[in-house]
Amino acid sequence: PGPFNKWGSQCAPATRTGSCIIALPPSQPSAQWLPSLPWAISVLRDCNCLRLTMIFSFCLQVILILTKLYDYNLGSITESSLWRSTDYGTTYEKLNDKVGLKTILSYLYVCPTNKRKIMLLTDPEIESSLLISSDEGATYQKYRLNFYIQSLLFHPKQEDWILAYSQDQKLYSSAEFGRRWQLIQEGVVPNRFYWSVMASNKEPDLVHLEARTVDGHSQYLTCRMQNCTETNKNKPFPGYIDPDSLIVQDDYVFVQLTSGGRPHYYVSYRRNAFAQMKLPKYALPKDMHVISTDENQVFAAVQEWNQNDTYNLYISDTRGVYFTLALENVQSSRGPEGNVMIDLYEVAGIKGMFLANKKIDNQVKTFITYNKGRDWRLLQAPDTDLRGDPVHCLLPYCSLHLHLKVSENPYTSGIIASRDTAPSIIVASGNIGSELSDSDISMFVSSDAGNTWRQIFEEEHSVLYLDQGGVLVAMKHTSLPIRHLWLSFDEGRSWSKYSFTSIPLFVDGVLGEPGEETLIMTVFGHFSHRSEWQLVKVDYKSIFDRRCAEEDYRPWQLHREACIMEQKGYIEAKSERKCMHGKYAGAMESEPCVCTEADFDCDYGYERHSNGQCLPAFWFNPSSLSKDCSVGKSYLNSTGYRKVVSNNCTDGVREQYTAKPQKCPGKAPRGLRIITADGKLTAEQGHNVTLMVQLEEGDVQRTLIQVDFGDGIAVSYVNLSSMEDGIKHVYQNVGIFRVTVQVDNSLGSDSAVLYLHVTCPLEHVHLSLPFVTTKNKEVNATAVLWPSQVGTLTYVWWYGNNTEPLITLEGSISFKFTSEGMNTITVQVSAGNAILQDTKTIAVYEEFRSLRLSFSPNLDDYNPDIPEWRRDISRVIKKSLVEVSIPGQHILVAVLPGLPTAAELFVLPYQDPAGESRRSPEELEQVSELLIHKLNQNSVHFELKPGVQVLVHAAHLTAAPLVDLTPAHSGSAMLMLLSVVFVGLAVFVIYKFKRKIPGINVYAQMQNEKEQEMISPVSHTESRPNIPPTELRRPGQLIDEKVESQLIGNDSQ
After folding, report:
1. Which CATH number fits domain 764-845: 3.40.190.10, 3.40.50.360, 2.60.40.10, 3.40.50.720?
2. Alpha-carbon distance 904 to 266, whole Å?
3. pLDDT, tens digit, 9 for 90 and up, residues 468-504
4. Which of 260, 922, 1001, 1014 is most exposed, with the fewest beta carbons within 10 Å of its own?
5. Domain PKD, which positions (predicted)?
6. CATH T-level topology, domain 595-664
């Protein structure tokens, strides 16, 4: 910013705060007496911090730098500074006063189509604003936002069009470079929004996005950026897609849809209807990644069913539908964020040229192709090493292997590098041997696009391309400070060592030239771990004394063969001429070549054999015709070969290998199938189900199709093309429906059947069985469902000590218990994808008694009729009985569902844990008589809440006699018993009749509780009969009643 001492290293007083220039006298030699390059150091003096993020941007002659201080203790950015240079980095000016001294910036964006336009985002934790500049960052205007920007996407052609993705997953658009914004869509999936970019420049304002619905599904939407209302949104793909699967790239749109446990991939070419991508029949892909869509062809990596750490490469036809194998078992790995990284590298500047690391017998080897996967070969190792000694490496046992990963840091060079403006030069790290290794890594360079290689360093270096590849700059990868670099002016054939600073520098990154015709490099780092940022500008212009002229170039061929991918050759600089290129001078010389067999790949369904011929795969029938072929029309009859899409060769064998048009012969329908769109055999009642009709052969334009849905409805179609989007139908009832389709034409017919299970969601399951039963007595258990009709069901039962379940198609089972004790019964009901279960406990004894209890009416006012309340009241009742001298180990209390409130009291034989002491039937009678006595004296009561006392009575209205039928009873007792039996039977008949009333039955099924209990059959309007409370029920009579409630209060207090 200000003048500096000519020979000193100290700054004179700077006119601007924040930077300082340190210059080394040109005549001062370095310690090793090496030639020194013209350089200058800028110090970002206000950035005396250890944790910094730097964002660089080149705009013509302007360099912008954004520095940020991240406080790891606070977990946030606490400071930021914006720096600007207008002289390629010689001096820098701090612009914090122009953007706001207290403003904390988070991101810097440069418009890709107009580098004069700059956008800065503020830290969203402080404020939501953006700053806009239209003069290369000299001045800024600030605009407030009502949302927080997470990322921006600029239009590739329209400089003012921007998409902004907010932190709450909303997508906004701006047609005024961020000055005004309009909401497009909510619930957008991160990184799944795209501009419509097509070769035809059709609909440039169309936005493609993947959005989530309220129920969590993903769908593909398109709309205009300034008119994206609900009525104007389109859904190009019918139905839902797999989450995070939308890709829009050039003329192609890709989505994924999983059905039947398998992913299926669909493609739309030039925004036409989607078609399923066709891989070889038994590829059975688990995962797919689109590598490129250059030159109207899709290059994809597919992980097949039997692969774990490798992928196969496939190449498509123009529409991206039919794929053929290009290379098997390409190595893959996981990135830092879990993303899949395929060891495949596309060489810049030469179309169809790729490098790939293939796994062979647990060894990874590097292969190269010049015709987009048609042919692959190993890399020939250099003839000599760095010291000139011969290298003994014989193909195929030994070859050169390269690391193909590219650096994720934009300011450091990757392990492998190439440039569009220098198509012949490839620089990479690797090793010589039988396989790729992480040890003994050296640097290699090729000056003829991978045909031959030379070793240039024995350690890893970062290599930058300057002057369109006319100058290569190499800096050593090291954690130590350095002050030297290497230069090559002959495409890496020879290297010279230079010093770029007098003080060793910890290098954090390197920036290449900001302009097309400059020879400037900026190195940034620290002199020490606690020093300020140092920016070293190195200018190579003084090395050259002239620009290159036409006579400084010569043609060169890409390959030993005369023509590959229709290119005959390129133009390259003569290595012995030291001149500055300026504008790109290596433009290729291209003209059509004569077609050879090497210009053709195998067509879909064909495989290349060892003799080079493409023959049909075992699963492919070459005689099968396209379903779109109709009588009177023609189709292309494949020869087994197809020309590589981007290849424009002519003559030669082109006529021999090109598919021939042939008249469509009439064929009878064959291979008819009917399936659901999602591949499932189930549908939901009241919802659309889409049926797809598929036909392998037959004249689809002159075919009558009849579809019978099996529910009394049938439809007819006159041709198959009218059913491409499927047939939608709604079933109003549940059940299994036989769907049939019949196809007829003048030459024959075919039919197909689909058995479709229509269901409705199962909401509740209640297991109905008695509280207590006797040993060796058959017990009935029933699963009661809501709703009662849900379609095809499977019941899985566990009971007793059985370790294996019982599986039935019926909702009831009968079983016996042969030993006494508490037993758990569980039923699981499977309905479609849903499985519900209920569990109940049943007590098994040889002898027991039971009694129905009732309560004073005030208890009904506090009965919410939920399981939790009933369990608590059961414990309170048992405690009240124990307080009046009823042995707690003998009684079991269960409050029943419904109103009026009632409970079941069981008198059980007690057996101590040792099994030695057990109550006799006479003792059970004594306990029963004591119970009756206490209840008749109103001795059993409890306090529900302060001031609310509840009395417990013996109640009746049961379907079984309440006395024990034993010979010890007197004759009068028997007479009384017969009377009671008569009355009891009458009540039982009425009770059973009432249980069959539809209203009561439905109400019982609609209980929505955690325990899912059945309600009591006693209604609110029924009065309580006064039957003498001296009668107890026998166990055999109790079982028939089937009390449908959970066992409660079985603790022994």
Report:
1. 2.60.40.10
2. 63
3. 778 888 998 888 999 889 988 888 888 888 888 888 9
4. 922
5. 708-752
6. Wheat Germ Agglutinin (Isolectin 2); domain 1 (3.30.60)
